[in-house]
Write a structure and sequence with these properties.
single chain; about 450 residues; alpha/beta; FAD/NAD(P)-binding domain; 3 domains; 16 helices; FAD/NAD-bd_sf; UDP-galactopyranose mutase; oxidoreductase activity; flavin adenine dinucleotide binding
């Protein structure tokens, strides 16, 4: 039987799941994608409230993956709007380009303090070169990367506030997969390299380029997943929204059927291959018969940081002199103004702000209590972004599993769960939640394409 007669079921309709379905449907494989939300896109979409669209964070497509970029541009057509990257960070009493650059660092710190940080960085580099050591947690990894002074000033408190976890309780793996490099520090490290002090220690994530073109749309982040979902349908695939996966049935050690709830009724779909992008713990909990107890226990140790997004309609033409700005000591960690990237906002003379916060399920930020709104409005006013009186509408959007938490010692639990998944010959788990990773949109889509290719090889060998 050819692979075109086989059926692939994809769990989750974020960028990863959507692009896996795109790759498979394009070559004629029958695909059913199940997405529990009312529209595709996962965290990388937007939701309509009243006459306006509000993104679940700042999500724009980079051009780094040429194949995916060209494919998405063809799908979106004239809906795509190119926009130059313009990100900033509020730091040392002023605004600087993000990622932070060396010249900004020099301007932002008094010379004696800058010398102190530079000496700390130099000492960290010398120590790594003379006595290599392996960091045991994120705090040690950050100190190895940047030295104790910069760690205490720039990273310690912000990381603690953002995650609700002290860096001592985060894995060193977190630094190599999530924490972007400071471009300012890279300049100093290159100078040290010329003196024979080579950087052989922990590596942080490569930062975005200082100058690059991003892609957006007049209706926000929702346009891209909508275009991909449309293409999947045109190729014979099916994207089912409002479909909450309830059971994943195993038969003879393989995924044989997936059940989901939609419109108050349970439905099922038979599958030959299953690609999961839903959070790993959910995949484990929904499987019948259940996996061994040690796998169930391991899955409970894989935690995610929820996010609460405050979408504000503001009675101002413009609030920010950037696409988005990072803040280190406010109730929010980033504020974006998608109108600056081409979002259509109604009525005229108004703009939309995307105010991003991390939270816990059920806490004040998650609930959007009046007290929390007042705190956010107060911080927005302190930053001269807008006043409470300027805010016409407030909409709270949620991401229950926004970011994987790389808690200290999480790796063995992750290996236990992924080992169990690999023992099921027609099951894959991938993407941000399904892979417990931090891909951006094009990287997530590449992960989906890779999973689709693996599925095609398996189907061809059956």
């Amino acid at each position: 039987m050819s692979s075109s007669n086989k059926h692939v079921v994809i769990l989750g309709g974020g960028p990863c799941g959507l692009y896996a379905a795109r790759v498979l449907s394009r070559v004629g494989v029958k695909v059913t994608l199940l997405e529990k939300d009312v529209r595709p896109g996962g965290l990388a979409t937007s939701h309509q409230r009243g006459e306006n669209w509000y993104d679940l964070g700042c999500h724009m497509l980079h051009e780094f993956d040429k194949e995916i970029y060209e494919d998405i541009m063809e799908l979106m057509g004239d809906e795509s709007i190119p926009v130059q990257l313009d990100a900033k960070i509020r730091w040392a009493g002023a605004f600087y380009r993000y990622p932070l650059q060396f010249q900004d660092m020099i301007k932002g710190i008094p010379l004696p303090i800058l010398a102190f940080y530079t000496i700390g960085l130099f000492y960290a580099q010398i120590r790594k070169s003379l006595v290599p050591w392996t960091p045991k947690n994120a705090e040690q990894a950050l100190i190895q990367l940047y030295g104790s002074p910069l760690y205490r000033f720039f990273f310690k408190d912000f990381t603690h506030r953002y995650w609700g976890i002290h860096p001592k309780e985060l894995s060193a793996t977190f630094i190599t997969t999530k924490m972007p490099r400071l471009s300012a520090v890279d300049v100093l490290k290159k100078a040290f390299g010329k003196l024979g002090v080579k950087d052989k220690g922990v590596k942080a994530v490569d930062s975005a380029l200082h100058e690059e073109t991003l892609h957006y749309s007049r209706t926000g982040a929702e346009a891209m997943p909508r275009a991909i979902a449309k293409a999947i349908g045109e190729q014979g695939g099916e994207v089912v929204v409002g479909a909450d996966v309830s059971r994943i049935e195993l038969s003879e050690g393989r995924v044989s059927k997936v059940y989901y709830q939609k419109d108050g009724a349970e439905h099922s779909v038979v599958c030959d291959e299953c690609i999961s992008t839903i959070p790993m713990p959910w995949l484990v909990q929904k499987t019948e018969p259940p996996p061994p107890q040690e796998v169930l226990d391991a899955a409970k140790e894989l935690r995610f940081k929820p996010i609460a997004i405050y979408g504000l309609l503001v009675r101002k033409e413009k609030c920010l002199d950037a696409l988005y700005i990072y803040y280190r000591d406010r109730a929010f960690h980033r504020v974006g103004e998608p109108k600056n990237a081409g979002l259509t906002v109604k009525p005229e003379g108004h703009t939309v702000l995307i105010v991003e916060t991390t939270c816990e399920l059920g806490d004040a930020k998650w609930q959007g209590t009046e007290e929390m709104k007042d705190r956010i409005f107060k911080d927005l006013e302190a930053e001269k972004i807008c006043t409470k009186a300027d805010v016409v509408e407030t909409h709270v959007l949620h991401g229950e599993t926004g970011y994987p938490i790389f808690a200290l010692g999480f790796e063995p639990y992750l290996e236990k769960v992924t080992g169990w998944v690999k023992s099921i010959p027609n099951l894959q788990t991938t993407g941000r939640q399904g892979g417990f990773k931090y891909p951006n949109m094009h990287s997530a889509m590449r992960m989906g394409a890779t999973a689709a290719q693996t599925a095609l090889k398996r189907l061809g060998s059956q």
